[in-house]
Design brief:
The chain is mainly α. It has two helices and no strands.
Amino acid sequence: MSTLDPQQLIKRIDTVLDILVAKDYPSAINNLEILKAELLDVYRDTSTTSCEPKKSPWEI
């Protein structure tokens, strides 16, 4: 089971923000998708239910 390290998460978010400042939008989106997939894996490892979380109304 993976653990979520807040310091590592902060560093990765900072990296994505730096990429956005550099206006490399495709790389920023790619990094966010990777981060999202990894966070979902951690969530699924710790989740006791198999239900998919409901999306917010603004998510497509």
